[in-house]
Amino acid sequence: MSALEIRGLEAGYGRTSVLQRLDLHVESGVTAILGSSGCGKTTLLRAVAGFVEPTAGTIEVAGRQVVGGPRNVPARHRGIGYVPQEGALFPHLSVARNVAFGLPRARRRDAATVVAEALRLVELDPGLAERYPHELSGGQQQRVALARALAPRPALVLLDEPFSSLDASLREETGRAVVRALRAADAAAVLVTHDQGEALSLADQVAVMVEGQFLQVADPASVYLTPADPRVAAFIGHASLLPGEVTAAGRGRCALGEVALRGSTTPGPARFAVRSEQLQVRADDAADGVPGEVVDVSFFGHDATIRVRLATGEQVTARTPADSVPAAGDKVQVAVVGDVLGFAG
Ligand SMILES: Nc1ncnc2c1ncn2[C@@H]1O[C@H](COP(=O)(O)OP(=O)(O)OP(=O)(O)O)[C@@H](O)[C@H]1O
């Protein structure tokens, strides 16, 4: 029995349609919904949770139809845990009372045991149970929010950008702890994020959403290595998309010169996706590649991304080690390392 089955789901607000006939199958584990701001990720979670009424389609949670039957099942009876953005703990309740909040009446008698078990699952010190949310760090608050969602033992947990307010290192650590807790609780999860690193590192399945539709639903390695659509490549791999032409099997030509190809090899017009780490930028005139001019540089410490305008006017983004970063306005040579992904059309 799958944890979540969505078929032909449509939903929106008034006359604005947001979700466009979505299908999604979540057998178990963590599925990340990855997409840019406004594409419909939160609307999808809200439709599954029961806070947005879909206009078409069906939703089954743990084998039970909750949308599309004679009557939609109300949110509180769907058996779903929900972790909203920034946790949304009740500020006037202690950690223990926050965690026990959603328990059905019958289980409230052993609330202390349930709270202790939920805190153990999310790897929080039981000593924190009597604290109030403002006495916790951001990462601890997120774990309490997950403990609250897990306490009624849902088959499915929905997490809406749960780590967005945390700083980078805490984000990674909290993300891993949350996934461990979900696995220990044997709960499937749908995690909404716009951060591809988070999606690729935490999820078993990644669903890439653009304008209310899934362009690809697959395991993280497939989404990264064999994107089904140029927009998936651009979004996931920070790839630059360039128009070009397939000249022969495995060979193509574009603003970066002659390139070796993977993917579409039918001669004719094509689009090429070149990942930022595939581009080498050198300030040396005699270096291999095509000429360009540096537009801007973002320095990240371990490396930097460099936007370069090529002689043809097209722009590409390269990632370069921190010790060889040119400056905006520098004339450079840009070369491609390895195969470029080709898409027909
Ligand atoms: N209550 C609402 N009424 C009308 N339109 C809405 C409402 N909520 C969201 N929208 C619109 O629906 C679209 C999808 O919004 P949604 O919040 O699902 O996107 P998202 O992918 O979760 O974005 P973000 O990453 O910024 O949270 C957007 O165009 C948004 O403006």
From TrEMBL:
GO molecular function, one term: ATP binding
Classification via Pfam families: ABC_tran, TOBE_2
Keyword tags: ATP-binding, Cell inner membrane, Cell membrane, Membrane, Nucleotide-binding, Translocase, Transport
UniProt organism field: Nocardioides daeguensis
Signal recorded as keyword: no
UniProt keyword Nuclease present: no
Limits of the ABC transporter domain: 4-236
Protein's UniProt name: ABC transporter ATP-binding protein
